[in-house]
Amino acid sequence: MFLISCPFCGPREESEFSYGHEGHIARPADPDSLSDAEWADYLFMRKNPKGWHYERWNHARGCRRWFNVARHTVTHEIRAVYKMGDPPPAIEP
Amino acid sequence: MTGYRVAGRGRVDPDARLRFIFDGRSYEGLHGDTLASALLANGVHFVGRSFKYHRPRGIMSAGVEEANALVGVDRGRGRYTPNTRATVLELYDGLTAESQNYWPSLRYDIGAVNDIAAPLIPAGFYYKTFKWPASFWNKVYEPVIRRSAGLGRAPTAPDADRYASRFAHCDVLIVGAGPAGLAAALTASESGARVILADENPEIGGSLLSDPAVQIDGKDAWNWLEEARATLAGRANVTLLTRTTAIGYYHQNFLGLVQRLTDHLPAAASSLPRERMWKVRAAQVVLAQGAIERPLVFDGNDRPGVMLAGAGRSFLNRYGVKVGNRVAVVTVHDSAYLAAFDLARAGAGVATIVDLRRNPRAALLAEARSLGIEVLSGWTVTATKGRARIAEIRVNPVDQNGKVGAARMIGCDALLMSGGWTPSVHLFSHSKGALDWREDLQAFVPGAPNEAVRCAGAGNGTFGLAAALAEGAAAGAATAGSAGTPTVFSVDGEAPFSGVYFRELPTDRDPTRAKAFIDFQNDVTAKDIRLAVREGFRSIEHVKRYTTNGMATDQGKTSNINGLMIAADAVGKPAPEVGLTTFRPPYTPTTFGAFVGYSRDAHFEVERKTSIDSWAEANGAVFEPVSLWRRAWYFPRSGESMHEAVARECRATRRSLGIFDASTLGKIEVVGPDAAEFMNRMYTNAWTKLAPGRCRYGLLLGEDGFIRDDGVIGRLSDERFHVTTTTGGAARVLATMEDYLQTEWPDLKVWLTSTSEQWAVIALNGPNARKVLEPLVQGIDLNGEAFPHMAVREGKICGVPTRLFRVSFTGELGFEVNVPARFGLSVWKALIEQGRPYDITPYGTETMHALRAEKGFIIVGQDTDGTVTPHDAGMSWAIGKTKPDFVGKRSLARPDMQDPKRKQLVGLLTEKPETVLEEGAQIVDGPYAAVPMPMIGHVTSSYHSETLGRSIALALIQGGHGRKGETVYVPMPGAMHKATITDTVFVDKEGAKLNV
């Protein structure tokens, strides 16, 4: 159970949120121009790192807003919470 | 006073006498007793039978680690708790408990034959023995094993108690209120930090409760303890939780604490919940869980009367009970001497201390001598005797070369053993902290933490009172940052605390015949562990599963390290290389109620009801759950079967008029200058040219190209769409829309609002629908040309605002009346009144399903399963082909998605009209194909069609669109049914009934 600081509501229990997988994967502007392999890569391939992970969360049972989180997948430390469209913050390893 | 009660000792109240019943016999105990201490005060050691061999077992500990003395507690109907450890079960007046795992009686147990047959049932016997014939598994082996294994009986009545739960946040959570935890709490709370101090015992103190003679800051331990309690209680920033077990340590310093509120009270209480789950988020955690004493491993170490030395000391000093009148001790550790000395001073005869060490401390030997206790140093215990209670021990000298000499028998009525102490690292391990092996302690201690946590005291491998207090104070100070200064405590009278470690004790007998137990609860012996290694198991995780060592409800609190030391010896590797099994929450067995909390019955699964639900209930509806909604399924008249009721509802709707509560439909208001563009991108259909006032059937795909949801969507103005979704899909569709809008297309000026609960929806279907509406509607021209099929108008009905849709899910002339939910019931009643001349008939979801199937309208999730494309479903027409993009479009271009052999939605007509196929039934090409027959599809929807007087079905069949007219077969229990593939529309293929 994480404590996640929603950028719009403040710290709330994880049970209020839903997970949105890896962040910073933009939907291709012109999907028709992609090969099947490129489209499959967009559709299915996600990182599964042991360490820092930039991921999307949704305050589903709160303000319903999406945002980004930088979370360590081993310690579960949450180092940064930032809005959609903001660049991923650099994190010291 | 009973024979084993020692006046003037312990924290029990000699004037508060309590009656209790154990196995049907009445006994007396004192307030402050546990069931275990009260039984021992009455001279009762034999309290249960073991799990596998049904050996007599006694009380082996005085705390949570108890593996033998498990009892069932009966507090009345719905309040039976099996497998309760007698050592932590607080006595109350009228307590009724029973021993477990025997038949017909504790003393004469048929299952005890297992003990004699023990050589035939070694570790893993069930893997080796019960292999064949296969049919014996279900009928013979499993029922017998299930009955003879297991512990107490599970209660059958619903839990009659209430359970609470709450969140809490604090600066410092301290687990364990022994010396280290108290020192941490006193120091950490000085600076004003919010501190929660939790301890599983009824009172704080930990080891001090069993050690009254030691002095802290010049005060007797119990006086110091009372002052510490008063200090903490007086600080507003401290929350002191007793009877509260930290059961699990989760991410980001989140811990679950279970507080027991009523189990210690007489059964008649109370208005309190039985337990409360505290979900605590702490900035810092201090773990001061203490240590658990290890049993020694020798033949017959499980006999009633054999117990841990520290437990013997606790029963005397904390509860005022001597565990025997002629006590023997076997030890490898100094701490057992303290038990012997305290018992001797209290008047319990202490016969002998058997110390495996050749040279115990001189001071201990001198004190033993002064108390008249014989010390056999460099001796071993090789056997015990006695049936329901130990009567003799067999002891032998061990020479310098390890050779075991001639045996001698010593009479005793209790045997205290000490194999040293194991730090309790359970919670630290839950938090994924690394564990370091301490060779000197032969134990794991906390290493690098994974959370903001500090460990202190015996649980950190720091033994001795002064050291524990100092480390606790330092941990408490560190949590407060620079503000904290560790309190300094002075200690007098501290006893020596050192020892060595043994695996199985040396013996002159055949060790393969020894019943030297490691895991008392699961009946695992030393030779079982060695057998597992001989048979090829090398990892401790495998040894554990093969032997079941440490897998009982005590989770190996007393057995894990002994098992590991012996396995490591057998493997021939150092213990840390063989590894330690994983600790998992909960720390001690926890009631389901504590986890469930308030979330039971209607609070677990909320039942959503529409505004018209009460009318349906009053009019005899049978309900069915649809996602969380309760929906009217059908409306039987008296004496009608479901089939008859549905047939009548179908007839009435097709011939005259049916009325249906469609309020559960999901509804989303999509508003904004870019609303049409947003809809274009989300749905497959083209929306730009849809005129305000018109509707369109919309299809929503996932990005993988498969159908996710559908619904009729009305355009109210250029910038406003009224989107409907499936009942179960409402939340999911809104979430998907929000995801795209916020994360992919934040530039679009669109706002999304869930309006599912704001609108009540009443569907009127049938040739007479318009006639009933006309007198009630204001401001809308219902004429067929002014208000054609697939149109939406805003106006009033019965004087309240409405969005009136002309749509049909039945194929009949249909309207869906949307009114604000608060008017739903009154408008429904008005329509029912108005419809009487037309025999208006309320129908439920079953009729709705049958009528839509006659028209080949799909139900997403029934006729689709997450692998169905619009083309597969026969709805290529719903795709806006000129649109540059929409969610899922690119995936539809993949070669696989255009394979003509994909499963496609078709109709099925059985050869025999009365055969209603089973939904989900598989479809094959021919009845005589070789087995296994290739399955070419399955039935998705199947009904009796009242309109056609025969059965109809929808099915997904490979290449089905190109196979219309062909025959397929549907195997079902008892028969192979022949059916013809057809179009999906069975009734009014031209749609003539809609255009009226």
What is this structure's SSE topology?
The complex is a heterodimer of chains A (93) and B (996).
Chain A: E1 3-6, E2 10-13, E3 18-22, H1 36-44, E4 52-58, E5 66-72, E6 78-83
Chain B: E1 13-22, E2 25-31, H1 35-41, E3 48-49, E4 56-57, E5 70-74, E6 80-85, E7 95-98, H2 113-116, H3 125-129, H4 135-148, E8 163-175, H5 179-190, E9 195-198, E10 215-216, E11 219-220, H6 221-233, E12 238-241, E13 244-250, E14 254-260, E15 275-287, E16 291-293, E17 306-308, H7 309-317, E18 326-331, H8 335-345, E19 349-355, H9 362-370, E20 374-377, E21 379-385, E22 392-397, E23 408-411, E24 414-418, E25 421-423, H10 426-430, E26 435-438, E27 443-446, E28 453-455, H11 465-479, E29 491-492, E30 517-519, E31 524-525, H12 526-534, H13 540-547, H14 560-571, H15 575-578, H16 592-596, H17 613-618, E32 622-626, E33 629-634, H18 642-655, E34 658-661, E35 666-671, H19 675-682, E36 695-701, E37 707-717, E38 720-725, H20 730-744, E39 751-754, E40 759-765, H21 769-773, E41 777-778, E42 791-797, E43 800-806, E44 814-820, H22 824-835, E45 841-842, H23 845-854, H24 889-892, E46 903-910, E47 922-924, E48 935-945, E49 950-958, E50 967-972, E51 975-982
Parallel strand pairs in B: 1-7, 8-9, 8-15, 9-12, 15-28, 17-24, 18-19, 18-24, 19-20, 34-45
Antiparallel strand pairs in B: 1-2, 3-4, 5-6, 5-7, 10-11, 10-29, 13-14, 14-15, 16-25, 21-22, 22-23, 26-27, 30-31, 32-33, 34-40, 35-38, 35-39, 36-37, 37-38, 40-44, 41-42, 42-43, 43-44, 46-49, 46-51, 47-48, 48-49, 50-51
Helix pairs in contact in B: 5-11, 7-8, 12-13, 12-14, 18-23
